[in-house]
Amino acid sequence: MYQLLLIAAAVIPALWLLIRVYRADRLEKEPARLLLWLVILGVIATALASVTEQLGEMVLTSVFPEENIFYNFLLYFVVVAISEEGFKYVLLKKRTWKSREFNCEFDGVVYAVFVSLGFALWENIFYVLSYGFATAVARAVTAIPGHASFGVFMGVWYGVAKRYDLAGYAAEAKASLRKALWIPALLHGTYDFVATYQNEWMSLIFLVFVIWMFRTALKLVKKTSAADSPLMRSYVADVSDEFDAGGRGRF
Fold first, then answer.
1. Can you count the helices (H) and strands (E) in the chain?
2. What pLDDT is recorded for position 8?
3. 54: Cβ–Cβ under 8 A, 6 or more apart, which residues?
4. Taking a C-beta distance cutoff of 8 angstroms, is the pair 189, 124 a contact?
5. How far apart are CA 62 and CA 40, in angstroms?
6. Which of 115, 97, 219 lies closest to 164 in space, CA to CA?
7. Using CA atoms, how far apart are residues 192 and 79, in angstroms rounded to an integer?
8. Among 250, 251, 247, 11, which Cα is nearest to 129's?
9. 248 φ, ψ to 5°?
10. Contacts of 248 (CB under 8 A, 6+ apart)
11. What is the pLDDT of residues 195-214, one digit of tens each?
12. What is the DSSP code (8-state) at residue 104?
């Protein structure tokens, strides 16, 4: 019974976020079969990433002492971030890029978030069963929304890339696809790297970073949902002003 409660605590936050993003899809809801497949692909990405992360850690420990700043930097920005976001991206693109269902720009956000939360859901079940209910609570307010935010950033640029692709702008489509990978990987690496250091200043930096990331991701969902349109049009949505406005800078 206790294990069932732990699993529920691990699963419910991810399901809640999936429903929020699903409801934000205004123009045409995606088929349940496709969305289920994307969640499953997120689970598969978890297994694949665990292999490359173990191999990467073995290589790093042969070169740097553990907890060394260079060790942590390479571990979180290269081994973990690229492994996890890379497998999400590869499986996402393989399943949806040529799908006839990918016919609106916001679909990219829906697809990427479902893959990301499939990843987070399975990862969270593992952590919760291993470390208990307190871990479920902590991850419910940090790690699961974190993966959802990574998925939003990936999905926004993934949707833009699809619009560029259909409009015949091959170079711009490729550039947007690269952003769909490196922007969430950069955010993911920053999240993990800063969270590693448990002193007062780093905890404050982590809190500010997490609040900024969550708020920006929610704004992007709202903005891209409101501006969504069929992908047959040649118009290319410009999402970069979300980062330009208010002096927030640009990726």
1. 10, 0
2. 60
3. none
4. no
5. 34
6. 97
7. 11
8. 11
9. -80, -10
10. 216
11. 888 777 888 888 898 889 88
12. B
